[in-house]
Amino acid sequence: MWTSPTAGLAPGYAQANLVILPRDWAFDFLLFCQRNPRPCPLIAVTEAGSWQPPVSPKADLRTDLPKYRVWREGQLVDEPNSVSHLWRDDLVSFLIGCSFTFEADLLQAGVPVRHIELGRNVSMFRTNIPCVPAGRFSGPMVVSMRPLKPADAIRSVEISGRFAASHGAPVHIGFPDQIGIADLNRPDYGDAVPVHADELPVFWACGVTPQAALLEAKPPLAITHAPGCMFLTDLKG
Amino acid sequence: MWTSPTAGLAPGYAQANLVILPRDWAFDFLLFCQRNPRPCPLIAVTEAGSWQPPVSPKADLRTDLPKYRVWREGQLVDEPNSVSHLWRDDLVSFLIGCSFTFEADLLQAGVPVRHIELGRNVSMFRTNIPCVPAGRFSGPMVVSMRPLKPADAIRSVEISGRFAASHGAPVHIGFPDQIGIADLNRPDYGDAVPVHADELPVFWACGVTPQAALLEAKPPLAITHAPGCMFLTDLKG
Description:
2 copies of one chain form a homodimer.
Chain A: E1 13-22, H1 23-35, E2 42-45, E3 68-72, E4 75-78, E5 91-97, H2 100-108, H3 114-117, E6 123-130, E7 140-148, H4 150-160, E8 172-173, E9 200-205, H5 208-217, E10 222-225, E11 231-236
Antiparallel strand pairs in A: 1-5, 1-10, 1-11, 2-5, 3-4, 3-10, 6-7, 7-9, 8-9
């Protein structure tokens, strides 16, 4: 059983963020994703009770991720390697696109990705960009930051812009303070990654955004992937 | 007879830079364009002596531009409204893509283009980026600059990147000094255009590049369009 982060696994295939919610919270969350496609690009949503996503019919969402997080009323209560014991007929699973997918394309195009080079997690920041609220879900957009030389920044826009299912083109480039980020050396999630003087910080909408909204909404039960332990789809990225 | 700049005419159709050279200079220039596709995206090249470009078979390149420039040994000697009197059987015409084409797409996408708003010519700068030499032609890349807010800069990369025939995506963004530009307020060609504190200067390869290379190579005769007085093609932009 694989229990480690999935970065670099199954190159060329899309990886996905996972959010599982009870049926009576599912409409609000689906609407939140529909209204905020950059941070929450939906790859697939199951029927209530099904653990088989349409995009990977042989998968079992209860056991196929390396590690899960279980949240009750917005509090992290467990990090199991399976959620079979928690399964209920009213659970709806959401698969949301992940930046691991376009990072592989950046690397293939010769665009360096510093946090991968440094063996760190990507830097992530809460911004002052509000998501469009939907029912009980609201919150700020969370972004990931990659420092790039100008020519690489341009390439990264062209490359990531082709992948709407993994956050698409950047949402900001160049001025962290314009989106409410005071200090690039102090990310809200992930690790600090240095930005050199000849580089631009480039910001993409991040799949942590729906988790932040989830924690604020405090549903009685929510299951997500553990950080970096994504669902590997059968989809070409 | 139309004798004014063509910006804004025939929206949706590609406009083109024109360069006309004697046959014995044509191979070098064609190779220069082939090796430098960002500043010199070739739309069409005629057979020697023909004034009918393949892309616009009803056109007459000797008379259809509002204004021409005639160069002898690298010196500007005339600005006529027709070059019929200069026509020779050995003249080859090159049509090169023009940024007017993607500017129309920027405006349609809601991305403001300041020099158009201000009624000025775009700012153009000689850079320290060398073109790949070809025969007797060499020289620095000339770029045009458009100041854009970060989100618009990102959109502009996505939009212009689709139009390889009109210079494609930007070649630089953010740091003028990295490409040898000392002062954005003192363009080498065109008009100064202010860059606000919350904006990034975005630089595209410019169709003036081949003219700069032409002047340095000093062919005995060259005919070009006059600044802003482009050839209107029958091609959808």
